Amino acid sequence: MRPKATDPFNNRPEDVLNKAIRAGVGALPVVGSPLLEFLAFVIGDPAQERRDDFMKETVDRVMSLESKFKALRPDALRENEQFQATFIQSARIATTTASAAKKKLLQNAILNSAIISVSETIRQIFMQNLDRITPQHAVRLNFVDKPAGNPAAAASAKGMMMGSLTSIIEKALPEMYSNKEIFDRICVDLYSMGLTTNESFGGMQSGSGLLDRRTTNLGQSFLAFISDPETSQIPPDDHS
Questions:
Q1: What is the C-alpha to C-alpha distance for residues 196 and 26, in angstroms, rounded to an integer?
Q2: Average pLDDT over residues 212-233
Q3: Which value, in Å, is the radius of gyration of the alpha carbons in the chain?
Q4: Which contiguous run of DSSP H or E holds residue 205?
């Protein structure tokens, strides 16, 4: 084990998040040190630990893949500002989520920021999307990108003369339809971000048309950005 003095992930009293919490609480009138210490302990330290764990796990993934992707070798990453920016942004977002699947999406984005060629404007849009979405958004987007790739969806559509994609999703991904309000909200979110061609998937179509792709070009690029570079798959939703 490395000495603490050389460990970049040691707990640091001057951690930015802790400083922000202390400064904010300390500025309030009649707020004493017990509350300040409580907030720093309950929120500040765990947030730092989540960030540090995320960074460690990400570095482990980078090192495990550097022999497969030249773009992930240290000398290449040192010159890659997009990778560095994505790493910093993702580490920040990771402190605000308890979802393992969301963290995996963020790690995928870090890896792909080095592997995939993407303009800085698009990368920034993708990072904004990542900050906003849940794992359920990613799973739904992946599904509507290739409905025919889901065996249950393909079988369901084959037996229909007419139907809606919503009914197909309900059968192929029943957990996605357990809360209709959330289901509808995710549809609207994906459309508002320019990732899908439909705001709602309830329209009636022929059976074969139900398996058509419903992602935009931007949506397909976003999926590539957040997919595991080893498997090109979206991590399963952990319902967090």
A1: 45
A2: 94
A3: 21
A4: strand 204-206
* Separation between Cα atoms, residue 115 and residue 209, nearest integer Å: 34
Q: Which two tokens stand for residue 71?
A: 């773009």
| Per-residue model confidence as pLDDT tens digits over 175-220 | 887 888 999 999 999 999 999 998 988 777 766 688 889 999 999 9
Q: Where are the beta strands (DSSP E) in the chain?
A: 162-164, 204-206
Query: The pTM is what?
Result: 0.79
Residue 96 DSSP symbol? T
End-to-end CA distance of the chain: 33
List the one residue out of 231, 229, 236 whose CA is nearest residue 107: 229
Q: Are 91 and 54 in contact (CB under 8 A)?
A: yes
**Number of continuous H segments (helices) and E segments (strands) in the chain:** 12, 2
Q: Is 81 exposed, middle or buried (0-12, 13-18, 19+ CB in 10 A)?
A: exposed
- What is the C-alpha separation between 56 and 192, in angstroms, rounded? 34
In 3D space, the residue among 139, 133, 157, 143 whose CA is nearest the CA of residue 205 turns out to be 157
Judge contact between 227 and 108, C-beta under 8 A: yes
Count Cβ atoms below 10 Å from residue 65 Cβ, excluding itself. Answer: 17
Place of tokens 């003369």: 161
Distance CA 22, CA 219 (A): 40
